[in-house]
Structures are given as C-alpha cells and as structure tokens.
Design a protein that fits this description.
2 domains, Rossmann fold, 326 residues, binds nicotinamide-adenine-dinucleotide, two-stranded parallel sheet, alpha/beta
Length: 326
C-alpha cells in the first residue's frame, strides 16, 4: 500500500481550489509548509481573483501525471446548491463522474490518501440529533444524492485491494466566513444588510443549522493529513442555531436591516446538528472555537471592508443572481 513518507511535509492537491473552503485551505496548508497544487475549472465565479498558481482545469481532465508525487488530495470541487439541484438535477451527475474519474487517476498514480468533501445533507431528516457518522443516509435533494454517490464510489476504491488509496469522507455541516458566496444564509444576510437593508428568510426561519467558522474548519482539515485514517468524519460544531437567530445577530450589528420573507425551499430540513465525538478524538480543536456572534461579525466586516461589493458593482446584482450551471 502506498504511504506518506514519514518526516517529509506532504505534497497536496486541492480540487475546487478557487472556492470558498479551497482558497482558505490552500493558504493554510502553504502556511504549514506544505507544497500545494490547486485546480478549479472556475465554473463558479470566484469573489476574488484566484491566486496565480491555480491551474484552470476540470477534475475530469486530470491525468495520473497531474497527481504523480502527490501524497494527499483534498477533493472539494463540487456543484453544491440544494435549490439549483432541483432545477438542473442532471448537472449533479458531474459530482459523481468527477469523483469516479479522480479515484481512478489516484489509484493509477498510487496516491496514498484522498479526502472527499461531503455534506450533512446526506443524512436528510435524521432520526437522531446530534447525528453520528453511522446514521442512515437519506438524501432529500439531487445535490445530497450526488454526494452520497460520491461517497459510495470513493468507498468502492477504498475496498478495492489493488487500489491502495486511503479514503476519508469529510461531512461538513454549515461552514461560513469571509469569501463565501452569498447563496448561503450568513453571507446572504451580510450582503442584504449592506445593500438594500433586507435579510431574506426562507420559510418560517425556524430551520436550524450547525455553523462552524472557516478558520476552525481549515485548522482541522490541515490536521487530517497526519490524522489516523478513518472512513468518514463529521465536521461541525455540535450545536445548532436557527435562521432567525442569525438574522437577530445581523440586526444587532446593522439595526436598520429588516427581515423579508420568501417561500421555503423544496424538502426543507428542520435541523442539522453534528455528533462531534469522532471529530474531537481525531483533532486538537482550537479552544475556544470562534463563536457564532464573533464569526458573523467578522464575516460582515469582510463584506463591508474587502472591496468585494465595489468590485462586483452596486447594487450587488451579479452577486445575488443564482449561480446557474452550464
Ligand atoms: N460551504 C459549506 O458550508 C459546505 C457544506 C457542506 C459541504 N460542502 C462541500 O465542501 C466542498 C467545498 O465547498 P465550498 O463552499 O468551498 O464550495 P464553492 O462552490 O465555493 O467551491 C467549489 C469550487 O469547485 C469548483 N468546481 C466545481 N466542480 C468542479 C469540477 N468538476 N472541476 C473543477 N472545479 C470544479 C467551482 O468552480 C468552485 O470554485 C464542496 O464539495 C461542498 O459540497 C461545503
């Protein structure tokens, strides 16, 4: 079985390197002294110009030469919108096909370790909260179904004796922070508060999500290169907050902002909350992690001070437009 050489800093490939998590992760891995290659086909327009070393390529164009000498692949590239996956479900087959291609290429090049980004959405309406990694998979959107399929194809290679690539599936709950596009709730509220003053709440706003600040997530992802291989691990905070609680935090920071109601998304899931026992045993977590109020304030400050609104024009129409794919 191929192994990461002891005593040598791993060489890493990040797919989806121009995206929200990929960008932060690439920077953190480089700060930790690792050699990092990143690829992205830029199907999602980045909020800031990608760094000069990013290779513009889709995952399906990767060859064994591209991953030769790589010790760890972080496979973050994915189409990831729940609502858009109902509009363009067949587009989400690409998540599966790209992952199957990547696993084949990594097996051919004897890459020792692949980390696959998945999501809490694979649990659907979980019977138990907090939800453990062993909970049944019950996806309720084409996006979630595509992530289950990604997980399964990765597991197939893990089980395949002649592959030798260790695979860990990382199920993110809601990750937020500077640089995330505003089709997620926290950056959406920040953008709304700073532009037309409205916070757009889908449905009742009582739906609860488990939010983790990007720096805390990336800190754990960096540790994964050296952690004992496990088949699957949740990355969450272990607590949940409602959309209305997030709106209240933003309104404390921007008192003139008001809530605007819109209809619920299809198959809305009332709550996600992560069981973090395994996560705690694998990683030394920052103490304390960034709290929700502090994280929302940092994200809002980024939207107000980074120049992103000016770069994308005002009003921020191009940012609010949904990311249609293809
Ligand atoms: N952000 C979250 O809260 C969250 C939660 C659960 C799961 N995830 C998963 O984490 C991963 C990263 O999420 P993110 O928030 O950084 O998303 P993102 O949309 O910001 O980044 C994804 C990047 O992948 C690129 N991409 C997509 N398909 C590609 C392909 N086939 N080839 C090359 N590039 C491709 C896009 O251009 C984009 O830059 C995704 O797999 C997502 O499903 C994220």
């Amino acid at each position: 079985m191929p192994e990461i050489k002891q005593g040598k800093k791993p060489t890493v490939l990040v797919t989806g390197g121009a995206g929200f998590i990929g960008r932060h992760l690439t920077a953190a891995l480089r700060s930790a002294g690792m050699t990092v290659h990143s690829v992205d086909d830029l199907r999602v327009k980045p909020l800031a110009d990608p760094d000069g070393s990013l290779v513009r390529k889709s995952v399906r164009e990767l060859t064994p030469d591209d991953v030769s000498g790589v010790d760890v692949v972080y496979h973050l590239a994915s189409d990831k919108s729940v609502p858009l996956s109902f509009v363009q479900p067949l587009q989400y087959l690409d998540n599966l096909e790209s992952t199957a291609h990547l696993m084949r290429v990594c097996a051919d090049a004897a890459v020792p370790r692949v980390l696959i980004a998945s999501t809490c959405e694979v649990y659907g309406r979980a019977a138990r909260l907090p939800t453990e990694e062993s909970a049944p998979l019950a996806p309720l959107s084409p996006y979630a179904a595509s992530k289950v399929a990604m997980e399964m194809v990765a597991r197939t290679y893990q089980e395949c004796a002649d592959s030798g690539t260790d695979t860990t599936v990382v199920r993110f709950f809601n990750v937020y922070g500077p640089g995330e596009r505003p089709d997620a709730v926290i950056p959406g509220f920040c953008l709304g508060a700073l532009t037309d003053g409205s916070l757009c709440v889908e449905g009742s706003g009582t739906q609860r999500r488990d939010f983790s600040y990007i720096d805390d997530v990336v800190d754990q992802l960096v540790q994964l290169t050296a952690a004992a291989p496990v088949p699957v691990v949740n990355i969450g905070s272990g607590v949940s907050a409602s959309v209305l609680e997030i709106a209240a935090i933003v309104r404390e920071l921007c008192p003139s902002a008001t809530v605007r109601w819109t209809r619920s998304r299809p198959n809305e899931i009332p709550e996600f909350r992560s069981d973090i026992s395994l996560q705690r045993s694998l990683f030394s977590l920052r103490t304390p992690p960034v709290g929700l109020r502090e994280g929302v304030e940092r994200t809002l400050r980024w939207w107000s001070e980074s120049g992103v609104l000016e770069r994308h024009g005002s009003p921020a129409g191009s940012l609010l437009r949904p990311q249609l794919i293809g």
